[in-house]
Each structure stands twice: as C-alpha cells, then as structure tokens.
Hints:
The chain has helices spanning 23-38, 45-52, 56-62, 66-85, 96-113, 118-123, 130-154, 160-175, 186-202, 225-240, 247-253, 269-286, 288-294, 298-315, 317-325, 332-356, 362-383, 392-404.
Amino acid sequence: MNPARTPAPEPGARAVRRRPKNRRAQIAAVSAAEFASLGYHRVSMEDIAARLGITSTALYRHYPSKYALFAGELLRLGEVTVAAVSLPEVAAGWPARRRLGYAIDGIIAETIANRTTAGLARWEHRYLDGLDKRTVDQHFATALSELSALIGAVRPGLSARERAVRAVGVFSTVSCLGDHRVTLASKSLAVLLNTACWALIGADLPEPAQPPPAPRAVETPPTLKHELLLQRAVGLFYERGYPNVSVEDIAVAAGLPSTSAVYRYYRGKGDLLNAAFRRAADRMSAVIGPTLAESAGPTEALAKLVDMYVAGAFDERELIFVYFAEFGHVPDDERATLRVVQRMVVTEWAALLTRVRPGLTPAAAAVLVHAALGLVVDYARVFGDDERIHPRQWVIGLMEAVLFGEPAVGAMPG
Length: 414
C-alpha cells in the first residue's frame, strides 16, 4: 500500500466540511461587493449567507449584524484612502512633482485594487451611524488635506480653494471606477487615469462670474400634481436617501390630503424613482443629435455637450445626485431599459472623444467620459450648493481637462 495515498472513506461516512481559515475576510469581501452592487438597504444577512453557501447562524458567529459588515468596509476604505496619500519618510527629499505623483499613483492603485467597493464611499456612507460617519468623514478630509498640500507645492500660485477643488477632482476622477464596469487592463487604466489627474491639476481655470448665476427657478402649476409629486419625491430622496422616504412623506411634502392620493398619479415610490431616472437620462440623450448637427466638428460638439450637462446639473442638482446615487433602487423591470440609455449616452460621448483624441480606444474614452460626468455630482456632494467654491466655469474647465487631456504635464510650474 502506498503510504502517501489517502484511504477512501467508508461507505456512508459523513463528509467533514472544514471552515476556511480566512472565513471572516471572505465574509467581509463578499458582503462589501453585495453592498456596492445593490446598496446597503437591499442586502440582507440571508443574502450574504446564501452567496457564501453558509447558514445565517454561521454568519452571525462572525459578525453581529449587517451594519457591522457595512461599517467595517467603509472604515477600511477610509483608512486605505489616507494610506494612499501618505508618503514614506524618504519622500522628504523628493521634488514636489515626485511627491504628488507618488500620492496620485497610490490613489489609483488602491482604487483599482478595491474597484468593486469603491462606490460605497461615495453613495452609501450617508447610512452610517453618527460616530462611524464622523470617523469616515475625517479619513477623507485628512486625505483631501494631504493631497491639497501636495498640489499646492507643485502649483504654489493656486489659492486654498483652487487646490481643494483639484484635490476633490482627482479623487472623483479615479473613484469613478466604482460606478461602471468598463474593461481595461490594469496597467493601461492606471496610465489613463494618471494622465487625466495631471491634466486636471494643470488646468488653468477662468475667473468665475461675480456674482454666480442664480439657479433656474422652476415653477410648477398647481394643477400638474404629477410634476409636483416628482419634484418633491426627488428632493426627499436627495435629503434622506430613497430607502428612508415613504409614500406618506411624499404626499405630505406635495401637500396632498392622503397617501392614497399619490397612487392616482404613480404606482408607488419605485415608480417615482423610475420617472426621475427617465427624466435625467432622456435629457442627456435628447441633446446629442441636435448638438452634433449644429457643430463644426467633434471638439465643438463635445464642448457644447459639457456646457449643457453642467448647466443642467447646476440647475437640478438634486435630480443629478439621485440619478447617480440611487440606481440600485430602481425597480428591477426598469433597470435594464435605463442601462441601455445610460450606455448609449456614454458611447456617443466616447465616440466623439475618440475623434478628438484618435489614440484612445473606445474603452479608454468611455472611462474618461464616466470620470468627467461624475465630477459634477462629486463637487456638489463635497461642497454643497455654494457655487462660490466650485463655480460652473471651473467645473466645465475641469471636465474638459479630464476629457481632452490638456495641458501637458511639462507645462505646469513647480
């Protein structure tokens, strides 16, 4: 008998399942991916257990609650973000450009490594409890402060506000990877994002208009109850998050006498969210054809699309934020249709960009389009509604820098 050979089990013997040594890490990774894909509120402990092929009881032996898994991943992402911009001791003797480059490379590398969960920090962290939310917010504030200082060392002529706007832009440009699944080799992706970040940092921005233009007033005739309901629902989704808004809340906000009055116009809360998404998607898609017809070439057409997108986003900030943040809550039967419209918009923009920059592949152009579109909502998410901090002329200039890839790095001072 060969002593190295394992004897066959006796007939009818019970198989022994051994618990993986890294079970906690495996649970954390799977739950984080589920939260990122579906949103915190749409995932249950039972869902996570099913994905792992274990019982809920076994899952609770490792983690006391869904929230513990959720908060643990966001706290980890916050720590990773701070670590990405932290320089080694030897960096004290490096030139300013090399120090900044090290931090940008770190942000890109960590985001690519955590791509499946990167979107959590942007859209779901508002569901953290008070202390955890303050801790995560402090992590990202620290990272932004560190990056702003590094940008200031490379471009000493920038004001503190200009440095902060560029620092947020760098994080936004890179973290857009969490919002889409465009496939690109990691090395090519890192180079592409690196170039976009340097272009954003090096962009010279125009003097903002003084005072900033007032937001467009939207008056809804009292007879258009369906429109009023949609506006009030979007406002509540923006303020509280979709899962924390009830049909009753929407009825009260719209001045309706009862919850049942909402159902005269919409089938429910999900129908209102779907209507908001369709409106945002339709507005982005409807302008592409006429803009192409009225433009002399792809550069002009893309610049006009950027202008119109920024104007619409500033006039309807709540709608744009909900469009980015709440996609996981769109009713399942409508999500596929909306994805088709979303992909069409990105594809059309990317096709124009490849004509402006023939060296880009369609996939690379799509990554840059996603990054540029995300800038608008990230600035509003970080800085709020104060256009004195991130005026629309600046946002247009930074979107164009990400898309067009200018100026060259060598043109920057420092």
